[in-house]
Write a structure and sequence with these properties.
single chain; about 300 residues; Arc Repressor Mutant, subunit A; three-stranded antiparallel sheet; 10 helices; 6 strands; elongated
Length: about 300
Protein backbone atom coordinates (compact mmCIF):
# COMPACT_ATOMS: atom_id res chain seq x y z
CA UNK A 1 0.00 0.00 0.00
CA UNK A 2 2.83 2.35 0.88
CA UNK A 3 4.56 1.76 -2.49
CA UNK A 4 1.28 2.45 -4.29
CA UNK A 5 0.98 5.86 -2.62
CA UNK A 6 4.60 6.70 -3.37
CA UNK A 7 4.16 5.80 -7.03
CA UNK A 8 1.02 7.94 -7.26
CA UNK A 9 2.82 11.02 -5.95
CA UNK A 10 5.77 10.50 -8.32
CA UNK A 11 3.33 10.17 -11.21
CA UNK A 12 1.56 13.40 -10.22
CA UNK A 13 4.84 15.31 -9.85
CA UNK A 14 6.83 13.99 -12.87
CA UNK A 15 5.35 11.34 -15.22
CA UNK A 16 4.42 7.65 -15.53
CA UNK A 17 7.80 6.54 -16.92
CA UNK A 18 9.59 7.60 -13.71
CA UNK A 19 7.41 5.41 -11.42
CA UNK A 20 9.87 2.49 -11.57
CA UNK A 21 12.45 4.57 -9.68
CA UNK A 22 10.43 3.99 -6.48
CA UNK A 23 10.97 0.20 -6.68
CA UNK A 24 14.75 0.79 -6.78
CA UNK A 25 14.85 3.22 -3.83
CA UNK A 26 12.24 1.89 -1.33
CA UNK A 27 13.82 0.20 1.72
CA UNK A 28 17.36 0.98 0.54
CA UNK A 29 19.99 3.52 1.51
CA UNK A 30 22.65 5.31 -0.59
CA UNK A 31 21.83 3.77 -4.01
CA UNK A 32 24.36 4.50 -6.76
CA UNK A 33 22.97 6.70 -9.56
CA UNK A 34 24.76 4.67 -12.28
CA UNK A 35 22.98 1.53 -11.05
CA UNK A 36 19.59 3.37 -11.19
CA UNK A 37 20.31 4.58 -14.74
CA UNK A 38 21.26 1.04 -15.82
CA UNK A 39 18.06 -0.53 -14.42
CA UNK A 40 15.80 2.21 -15.82
CA UNK A 41 17.48 2.01 -19.23
CA UNK A 42 18.17 5.76 -19.28
CA UNK A 43 21.27 7.92 -19.56
CA UNK A 44 22.90 9.33 -16.43
CA UNK A 45 21.73 12.86 -17.28
CA UNK A 46 18.08 11.75 -17.67
CA UNK A 47 18.11 9.88 -14.33
CA UNK A 48 19.75 12.85 -12.61
CA UNK A 49 17.06 15.14 -14.03
CA UNK A 50 14.31 12.93 -12.49
CA UNK A 51 16.13 12.71 -9.14
CA UNK A 52 16.78 16.47 -9.00
CA UNK A 53 13.08 17.15 -9.59
CA UNK A 54 12.21 14.82 -6.71
CA UNK A 55 14.82 16.47 -4.48
CA UNK A 56 13.16 19.87 -5.11
CA UNK A 57 10.14 18.52 -3.16
CA UNK A 58 12.52 16.97 -0.55
CA UNK A 59 11.39 13.44 -1.42
CA UNK A 60 14.96 12.32 -2.05
CA UNK A 61 18.29 13.06 -0.35
CA UNK A 62 21.81 12.39 -1.66
CA UNK A 63 25.45 11.94 -0.61
CA UNK A 64 28.33 12.92 -2.89
CA UNK A 65 31.60 10.97 -3.06
CA UNK A 66 34.66 11.43 -5.26
CA UNK A 67 35.90 8.58 -7.44
CA UNK A 68 39.63 8.11 -6.80
CA UNK A 69 40.40 6.64 -10.22
CA UNK A 70 38.41 8.90 -12.56
CA UNK A 71 38.25 12.03 -10.37
CA UNK A 72 34.54 12.86 -10.83
CA UNK A 73 31.77 12.86 -8.21
CA UNK A 74 29.25 10.01 -7.82
CA UNK A 75 25.87 10.62 -6.15
CA UNK A 76 24.19 8.11 -3.81
CA UNK A 77 20.43 8.57 -3.35
CA UNK A 78 17.95 7.66 -0.56
CA UNK A 79 14.16 8.03 -0.54
CA UNK A 80 12.50 9.96 2.32
CA UNK A 81 9.26 8.01 2.79
CA UNK A 82 7.86 10.18 5.58
CA UNK A 83 8.27 13.40 3.59
CA UNK A 84 6.70 11.89 0.46
CA UNK A 85 3.67 10.61 2.41
CA UNK A 86 3.14 13.98 4.09
CA UNK A 87 3.29 15.72 0.68
CA UNK A 88 0.74 13.25 -0.72
CA UNK A 89 -1.51 13.88 2.28
CA UNK A 90 -1.43 17.65 1.77
CA UNK A 91 -2.20 17.22 -1.97
CA UNK A 92 -5.17 14.96 -1.25
CA UNK A 93 -6.54 17.46 1.26
CA UNK A 94 -6.38 20.24 -1.36
CA UNK A 95 -8.14 17.96 -3.87
CA UNK A 96 -10.86 17.18 -1.30
CA UNK A 97 -11.56 20.87 -0.71
CA UNK A 98 -11.86 21.47 -4.46
CA UNK A 99 -14.36 18.59 -4.83
CA UNK A 100 -16.44 19.91 -1.94
CA UNK A 101 -16.61 23.36 -3.55
CA UNK A 102 -17.68 21.80 -6.87
CA UNK A 103 -20.41 19.79 -5.16
CA UNK A 104 -21.66 22.88 -3.36
CA UNK A 105 -21.87 24.83 -6.64
CA UNK A 106 -23.65 21.98 -8.41
CA UNK A 107 -26.28 21.79 -5.68
CA UNK A 108 -26.88 25.52 -5.37
CA UNK A 109 -26.45 26.80 -8.95
CA UNK A 110 -27.98 26.00 -12.37
CA UNK A 111 -25.91 24.97 -15.37
CA UNK A 112 -26.73 25.09 -19.10
CA UNK A 113 -25.40 22.90 -21.89
CA UNK A 114 -24.92 23.28 -25.67
CA UNK A 115 -25.58 19.94 -27.41
CA UNK A 116 -23.77 20.78 -30.69
CA UNK A 117 -20.61 22.31 -29.08
CA UNK A 118 -20.83 20.22 -25.83
CA UNK A 119 -20.02 23.27 -23.69
CA UNK A 120 -21.24 23.65 -20.12
CA UNK A 121 -22.07 27.19 -18.96
CA UNK A 122 -23.31 28.82 -15.76
CA UNK A 123 -26.62 30.64 -15.52
CA UNK A 124 -24.91 34.07 -15.48
CA UNK A 125 -23.04 33.49 -18.77
CA UNK A 126 -26.21 32.09 -20.36
CA UNK A 127 -28.14 35.28 -19.43
CA UNK A 128 -25.40 37.47 -20.91
CA UNK A 129 -25.61 35.55 -24.24
CA UNK A 130 -29.48 35.39 -24.12
CA UNK A 131 -29.35 31.57 -23.68
CA UNK A 132 -27.76 31.16 -27.14
CA UNK A 133 -24.35 29.72 -27.95
CA UNK A 134 -22.03 32.40 -29.44
CA UNK A 135 -20.21 29.81 -31.61
CA UNK A 136 -23.04 27.80 -33.19
CA UNK A 137 -25.97 30.13 -32.22
CA UNK A 138 -27.83 27.16 -30.80
CA UNK A 139 -30.12 27.37 -27.76
CA UNK A 140 -28.80 26.24 -24.38
CA UNK A 141 -30.50 23.34 -22.61
CA UNK A 142 -30.86 23.12 -18.84
CA UNK A 143 -28.42 20.55 -17.48
CA UNK A 144 -29.48 17.83 -15.06
CA UNK A 145 -26.88 17.89 -12.20
CA UNK A 146 -27.93 14.69 -10.44
CA UNK A 147 -25.34 12.47 -12.16
CA UNK A 148 -22.55 14.97 -11.54
CA UNK A 149 -23.52 15.32 -7.88
CA UNK A 150 -23.46 11.51 -7.39
CA UNK A 151 -20.06 11.17 -9.09
CA UNK A 152 -18.62 14.03 -7.00
CA UNK A 153 -19.91 12.48 -3.78
CA UNK A 154 -18.27 9.16 -4.71
CA UNK A 155 -14.96 10.92 -5.44
CA UNK A 156 -15.08 12.71 -2.07
CA UNK A 157 -15.60 9.41 -0.23
CA UNK A 158 -12.69 7.85 -2.14
CA UNK A 159 -10.36 10.74 -1.40
CA UNK A 160 -11.28 10.68 2.30
CA UNK A 161 -10.41 6.97 2.50
CA UNK A 162 -7.08 7.60 0.77
CA UNK A 163 -6.27 10.40 3.26
CA UNK A 164 -7.00 8.07 6.18
CA UNK A 165 -4.73 5.36 4.77
CA UNK A 166 -1.96 7.86 4.04
CA UNK A 167 -2.14 9.31 7.58
CA UNK A 168 -1.97 5.78 9.00
CA UNK A 169 1.13 4.97 6.91
CA UNK A 170 2.69 8.32 7.79
CA UNK A 171 2.20 7.76 11.54
CA UNK A 172 3.64 4.28 11.19
CA UNK A 173 6.73 5.65 9.44
CA UNK A 174 7.15 8.44 12.01
CA UNK A 175 7.03 5.86 14.86
CA UNK A 176 9.66 3.78 13.08
CA UNK A 177 11.92 6.82 12.73
CA UNK A 178 11.45 7.75 16.41
CA UNK A 179 12.32 4.20 17.52
CA UNK A 180 15.40 4.25 15.29
CA UNK A 181 16.49 7.55 16.79
CA UNK A 182 15.96 6.27 20.35
CA UNK A 183 18.00 3.14 19.63
CA UNK A 184 20.84 5.26 18.30
CA UNK A 185 20.74 7.47 21.41
CA UNK A 186 20.72 4.41 23.69
CA UNK A 187 23.72 2.95 21.84
CA UNK A 188 25.63 6.20 22.23
CA UNK A 189 24.81 6.33 25.95
CA UNK A 190 25.92 2.72 26.48
CA UNK A 191 29.19 3.40 24.65
CA UNK A 192 29.81 6.45 26.85
CA UNK A 193 29.13 4.42 30.03
CA UNK A 194 31.50 1.66 28.84
CA UNK A 195 34.25 4.17 28.10
CA UNK A 196 33.82 5.75 31.55
CA UNK A 197 34.00 2.33 33.25
CA UNK A 198 37.13 1.42 31.30
CA UNK A 199 38.79 4.69 32.35
CA UNK A 200 37.85 4.10 36.01
CA UNK A 201 39.22 0.55 35.94
CA UNK A 202 42.47 1.76 34.40
CA UNK A 203 42.82 4.43 37.10
CA UNK A 204 42.13 1.87 39.86
CA UNK A 205 44.77 -0.47 38.46
CA UNK A 206 47.34 2.34 38.37
CA UNK A 207 46.53 3.28 41.99
CA UNK A 208 46.86 -0.37 43.08
CA UNK A 209 50.26 -0.69 41.40
CA UNK A 210 51.51 2.45 43.17
CA UNK A 211 50.18 1.27 46.55
CA UNK A 212 51.79 -2.18 46.14
CA UNK A 213 55.15 -0.55 45.40
CA UNK A 214 54.87 1.60 48.52
CA UNK A 215 53.80 -1.28 50.77
CA UNK A 216 56.65 -3.62 49.76
CA UNK A 217 58.31 -4.86 53.03
CA UNK A 218 61.81 -3.55 53.67
CA UNK A 219 64.43 -6.22 54.19
CA UNK A 220 65.33 -5.85 57.87
CA UNK A 221 68.92 -6.39 58.91
CA UNK A 222 69.35 -9.49 61.01
CA UNK A 223 70.97 -8.71 64.31
CA UNK A 224 74.05 -10.68 64.88
CA UNK A 225 74.22 -12.59 68.08
CA UNK A 226 77.14 -12.33 70.50
CA UNK A 227 78.26 -15.80 69.60
CA UNK A 228 78.50 -14.94 65.90
CA UNK A 229 80.54 -11.80 66.78
CA UNK A 230 82.96 -13.87 68.84
CA UNK A 231 83.32 -16.36 65.99
CA UNK A 232 84.09 -13.51 63.55
CA UNK A 233 86.70 -12.09 65.92
CA UNK A 234 88.32 -15.51 66.24
CA UNK A 235 88.34 -15.78 62.43
CA UNK A 236 89.95 -12.35 62.13
CA UNK A 237 92.68 -13.36 64.56
CA UNK A 238 93.43 -16.39 62.51
CA UNK A 239 94.07 -14.23 59.37
CA UNK A 240 97.57 -12.83 58.82
CA UNK A 241 98.33 -9.24 59.90
CA UNK A 242 99.04 -7.90 56.41
CA UNK A 243 95.57 -8.84 55.15
CA UNK A 244 93.99 -7.20 58.21
CA UNK A 245 95.90 -3.97 57.60
CA UNK A 246 94.88 -3.80 53.92
CA UNK A 247 91.24 -4.26 54.91
CA UNK A 248 91.48 -1.49 57.51
CA UNK A 249 92.93 0.87 54.91
CA UNK A 250 90.05 0.10 52.52
CA UNK A 251 87.51 0.82 55.27
CA UNK A 252 89.16 4.15 56.07
CA UNK A 253 89.05 5.15 52.42
CA UNK A 254 85.35 4.36 52.26
CA UNK A 255 84.67 6.38 55.38
CA UNK A 256 86.56 9.35 53.92
CA UNK A 257 84.38 9.22 50.83
CA UNK A 258 81.12 9.25 52.77
CA UNK A 259 82.17 12.04 55.15
CA UNK A 260 79.88 15.00 54.83
CA UNK A 261 81.61 18.12 53.59
CA UNK A 262 80.55 21.25 55.42
CA UNK A 263 78.12 23.29 53.45
CA UNK A 264 79.16 26.76 52.48
CA UNK A 265 77.02 29.34 54.21
CA UNK A 266 75.20 31.80 52.06
CA UNK A 267 76.11 34.65 54.39
CA UNK A 268 79.23 36.56 53.43
CA UNK A 269 81.87 37.15 56.08
CA UNK A 270 81.90 40.70 57.28
CA UNK A 271 85.36 42.15 56.81
CA UNK A 272 86.67 44.16 59.70
CA UNK A 273 87.73 47.69 58.84
CA UNK A 274 91.50 48.08 58.59
CA UNK A 275 93.13 50.25 61.20
CA UNK A 276 95.04 53.29 60.17
CA UNK A 277 98.58 52.34 59.16
CA UNK A 278 99.84 55.76 60.17
CA UNK A 279 99.01 55.14 63.84
CA UNK A 280 100.86 51.81 63.78
CA UNK A 281 103.94 53.34 62.25
CA UNK A 282 104.00 56.15 64.89
CA UNK A 283 103.74 53.63 67.72
CA UNK A 284 106.66 51.60 66.33
CA UNK A 285 108.86 54.67 66.08
CA UNK A 286 108.09 55.64 69.65
CA UNK A 287 109.08 52.17 70.90
CA UNK A 288 112.37 52.28 69.02
CA UNK A 289 113.23 55.69 70.43
CA UNK A 290 112.46 54.53 73.96
CA UNK A 291 114.80 51.52 73.54
CA UNK A 292 117.60 53.69 72.23
CA UNK A 293 117.25 56.08 75.17
CA UNK A 294 117.39 53.24 77.66
CA UNK A 295 120.57 51.86 76.14
CA UNK A 296 122.23 55.28 76.12
CA UNK A 297 121.36 55.86 79.77
CA UNK A 298 122.88 52.50 80.76
CA UNK A 299 126.06 53.29 78.83
CA UNK A 300 126.49 56.67 80.59
CA UNK A 301 126.10 55.09 84.02
CA UNK A 302 128.81 52.56 83.29
CA UNK A 303 131.24 55.28 82.23
CA UNK A 304 130.58 57.32 85.36
CA UNK A 305 131.51 54.38 87.56
Amino acid sequence: MKIKFLKSIVESLINKSSITIIDLLVGKKDVNEFLIAKKLGLTINQTRNILYRLSDYRLVSFIRKKDKRKGWYIYFWTLDVHQSLSLLESKLKVELEQLKNQLKNKKEKRYYFCNSCSIEVTEETALLNNFTCPECEGVYDLLNNKKDIISLEKKIIKVKKEIELVTFEKNKESKRLVNKKNRRIEKDQLEKIKNKKAKRDAKKKEIKKISVKKKEPKISKVRKSKKSKKIQKSQKLKKPKEIQRSKKIQKLKKLQKFKKTPKKSNFKKIKKPKKNLKKKSINKNKKKKSKILKRSSKFKRKNLR
